[in-house]
Amino acid sequence: MKIINGLKDIINDFDTFILDQWGVLHNGGEAFPEAIQALQFLKEHNKKVVILSNSGNTGKFSHTRLQDSGISRALYLDVLTSGEHMRHNFNSGKFKALGKNALFFSWDEDASVLEDCGLTESAIQDASFILCCGVARGDLSHYTNDLKLAYQRNLELVVSNPDLVAMNPDGSLKICPGSIAKAYQEMGGIVHWHGKPQSDIYKMCNELVGGWDRAIAVGDSLEHDIAGANGASISSLFITSGIHSTEISDQKSIVNLCNTFSVKPSYCTDWFKD
Q1: Residue 25 predicted with pLDDT over 80
Q2: Strands 165-167 and 173-175, bridge-based pairing
Q3: What InterPro entries does the entry give (predicted)?
Q4: Which domains does the chain have, with CATH numbers?
């Protein structure tokens, strides 16, 4: 792993940049100024830029969020989300055996994902599986009873966003759907994961950008961004100012943290910048 100052140090080594969204471009609020400059720098050098996001929403939703944050649509090719990965699997028939009745965990009252996947929201006693797309109830304790009942009924769980936590605009962390899925898996329940680090989403990403010869993934999650890049056999740039920032103090702490997650980033830097 090599510590770099910014993209200028590696700009000639790669033709495709696969960017995480949260923690790299923004934390749910306005885009980081350095990130906008970095995107402009990549555009000036005619690089392919695609955003690969562990978000249960669609790419169209991400386009709007990015625009609202200050990132122009002209600065990247497209967005691919874990939510689209999941929708693809439902619509291709991969989960046909699970049935159509979903115990639905969401962020808010938006149930469009049910319509997108041809599903019906059901109570725990009538559900044929769990669809985990959000944690509007709060922390994990608010889901424990449902998870126990679901496990007793041998229900499988499909999660649209595998992230355990994400950063808020103020730098604090919030729980994400992956935490519920992980808890269910630790109970012994069957979980169907989507997004990073699953190999399928990197294949989808490769097709989306028309293929790549020299690609690098940029992200702040060792468990998702860097592990996913390692699994896809592409280079990676670890952003240390993201969700692991409180665990990092020097280069040795970065190495130790990478060893804990059994990953090997190619490079690391503090912020996504040119």
Answers
A1: yes
A2: antiparallel
A3: HAD-like_sf, HAD-SF_hydro_IIA, HAD-SF_hydro_IIA_hyp3, HAD_sf
A4: 2-84+196-269 (3.40.50.1000), 96-192 (3.40.50.1000)
CA distances from residue 76 to 19, 114, 155, 212, 216 in whole angstroms, order as listed: 10, 29, 39, 15, 15
What's the whole-model pTM score? 0.92
> Above 80 in pLDDT, residue 111?
yes
CA distances from 51 to 116, 129, 217, 223 (A): 22, 30, 9, 17
- Which pairing describes strands 120-121 and 101-105: parallel, antiparallel, or unpaired? parallel
Radius of gyration of the chain (CA): 19
Measured between alpha carbons, how far is 170 from 175 in angstroms, rounded to an integer? 15
Q: Are 230 and 258 in contact (CB under 8 A)?
A: no
Looking at residue 239, its pLDDT comes to 97
Decide if 117 contacts 88 (C-beta within 8 A). Answer: no
pLDDT class of 10 with cuts at 50, 70, 90 = very high
